[in-house]
Write a structure and sequence with these properties.
alpha/beta, seven-stranded mixed β-sheet, 9 helices
Length: 305
């Protein structure tokens, strides 16, 4: 019989990439983590991790077992939710969201959901996608409003678990934001290479990472003078003439006086916004209704996909 605690420990090792960090997350000693993994390997008759100076990585057998661990965790969480609902008589729904997408899409969708299912108790948690998507896979949240740039969805961390089902909602193109007196403010579109000599202020670390990748391909090294975790703050700094910025379209409201927004020359960089759900066979009608409402909200802002 496979011990559930050993699966939990293996999943933590996969998530954190080392026995020491997994031990800290689980509030165990590194020795205890090592013993749990060794006991799991003995029971399976197969190695589940490989150890090196760079950390710990999963073997093919380890990836299978981490996938099983995530399935078990999701089943336990769904069972806990069902027991809670039996006691309260009301459906509990937990939604994770990133800030700008939640501000634009979530209020209208939640209002539509509660009108159709008035007994639903809603819980909203703010997370970036690299944190919210693993929570969906583990069953800790029912639904995550998330995004990614070019490339795969974030939050996999090499765990080997199955990705959560993903429903695309909208593309969110990035725009250059300039002071309205800037020499390029009257342009219809801008290539980012035209701003190679400009200082930058950015409202998201992932936007900065995208800018730096683009700049490297275009042959320049952007001078980033300000980084924030808030797009409104970043635009306020642009208005103060600290630099220019790169802002997703859904984060361009509310307006900041003294600014000009210019689209990026096609093919324009964009965030891809969507919703991840647990894919559990007992998926509730409330989750389906919320996904439908989010698609409706996204269509109102972008037109039909």
């Amino acid at each position: 019989m496979i011990d559930v605690q050993r699966l939990r420990v293996l999943r933590a090792v996969a998530e954190h990439g080392s026995f020491n960090r997994a031990a800290a997350a689980l509030r165990l000693t590194p020795s205890a983590v090592s013993q749990h993994v060794a006991a799991l390997e003995r029971g399976l008759g197969s190695q589940v991790v490989t150890r090196s100076t760079r950390g710990v990585s999963l073997t093919p057998a380890g990836r299978i077992m981490v996938g099983a661990a995530e399935s078990v965790a999701a089943e336990i969480e769904h069972a806990r939710q069902q027991v809670t609902e039996l006691g309260s008589g009301r459906v509990q729904l937990t939604v994770a969201t990133f800030t700008s997408g939640g501000r634009l899409l979530l209020p209208g969708a939640l209002a539509e959901l509660t009108a159709a299912h008035p007994g639903t108790v809603l819980h909203v948690r703010e997370y970036e996608p690299e944190d919210s998507l693993p929570l969906v896979r583990r069953g800790a949240v029912d639904l995550a409003l998330a995004y990614h740039f070019d490339g795969p969805l974030p939050g996999r961390t090499g765990s080997g678990g199955s990705p959560a089902p993903w429903t695309a909602l909208m593309n969110d193109p990035l725009h250059v934001v300039l002071p309205e007196a800037h020499r390029l403010a009257g342009r219809e579109t801008l290539d980012l290479a035209e701003l190679a000599d400009e200082p930058w202020v950015l409202g998201c670390l992932k936007t900065e990472a995208y800018l730096r990748r683009y700049a490297e391909r275009a042959g320049f090294d952007p001078e980033v003078r300000g980084t924030t975790t808030d797009y409104f703050f970043a635009r306020s700094l642009v208005a103060a003439r600290m630099g220019v910025s790169l802002i997703p379209s859904i984060a361009l409201t509310p307006q900041v006086p003294g600014l000009r927004t210019v689209p990026v020359t096609p093919p324009a960089p964009a965030r891809h916004i969507g919703v991840a759900t647990s894919g559990h066979p007992r998926a509730r009608a409330e989750v389906t209704a919320l996904v439908r409402a989010l698609r409706k909200q996204a269509a109102e802002h972008t037109g039909p996909r």
